[in-house]
Amino acid sequence: MIEISNLSKTYGSGAQAVKALSGVHLTIEEGMFGLLGPNGAGKTTLMRILAGIAQPSAGKVVIAGYNLADEKARTDYKAMLGYLPQELGMYPDLTARQFVDYMAILKGMHIPAQRQHRVDEVLDMVGLSEAAGRKIKSFSGGMKRRVGIAQALVNDPRVLIVDEPTAGLDPEERIRFRNLLVDLAANRVVLLSTHIVEDIGQTCQKMAVLSRGRILYTGSPRELTGMAEGRVWTVTTQSTTKPNNGLTVVSMLHLAEGVQYRLVGASAAEYEGAVTAKPGLEDGYVWLMKSAGYEAAIQ
Ligand SMILES: Nc1ncnc2c1ncn2[C@@H]1O[C@H](COP(=O)(O)OP(=O)(O)OP(=O)(O)O)[C@@H](O)[C@H]1O
């Protein structure tokens, strides 16, 4: 469905040049695909290229047969694309229905009766039927994200791209939003970019990890978790110095008997009483980043 080959993107030139993407290869099939990476990894740059609104410096992107290097193909492709950018400007004094209707007009839906029917349909899909007549400024963060998804869905896209959609949502809103994306992925490609490991583990069958513009991993969340097998340890200590020696502290817990650290690294043999623990996806991610020579932005 989405074929990305040898994609690179450099901003600026000379001494100021920033290489945001370097030689990215990815194949993305139908269903939900997660792109995980720390801040500045290049996720937004990749999403914008895949949405046809930024041009790569080199490489090729073909989506559903459309080669995005071709202007005509890019225009045709946009009819089957839904995009929710990291920050979607909304008009706070419009109601949710008015805003989605306005976005539908911009997408070329000019037959009023059909458009209004579709607007109500997408507001219903995202669970906003009852709030459709309320002004956006009265909405919670989660409701605003759902308005964002509603506008992205109005043209019934086969490809839905969402960039960091759960940032700033409370846990309940995040779960609702994730479930909504999973439902939407039943019959389309949903591409989710995030720096939140949990968002991917709970929703995506396939994923990639991007760091400093390079793909470090593609596969399933389960396989990534498996990579940390035998590399995760818990140590309980009364010492006030944090374990170090090449180990990453993933979490710590104050207990009556001391501080319990969860560590990821090649070996915790030097810590008396260290026991291996069952890895989770976050451990897999931390181990991957360590193996590639980066410290995951966890501590
Ligand atoms: N318009 C631009 N001009 C110059 N540099 C840019 C521009 N946009 C992004 N960059 C740089 O490119 C790199 C990748 O940025 P990008 O926004 O794609 O990363 P990201 O993974 O989406 O990060 P975040 O999660 O913080 O949004 C960063 O070093 C960033 O500073």
Automatic annotation (TrEMBL):
CDD domains in UniProt: ABC_drug_resistance_like (cd03264)
SMART domains per record: AAA
Family under the similarity heading: Belongs to the ABC transporter superfamily.
Domain ABC transporter residues, every copy: 2-237
PANTHER family (alphabetical): ABC TRANSPORTER, ATP-BINDING PROTEIN (PTHR43335)
Full protein name: ABC transporter
Molecular functions (GO terms): ATP binding; ATP hydrolysis activity
Organism, scientific name: Ornatilinea apprima
Keywords assigned: ATP-binding, Nucleotide-binding, Transport
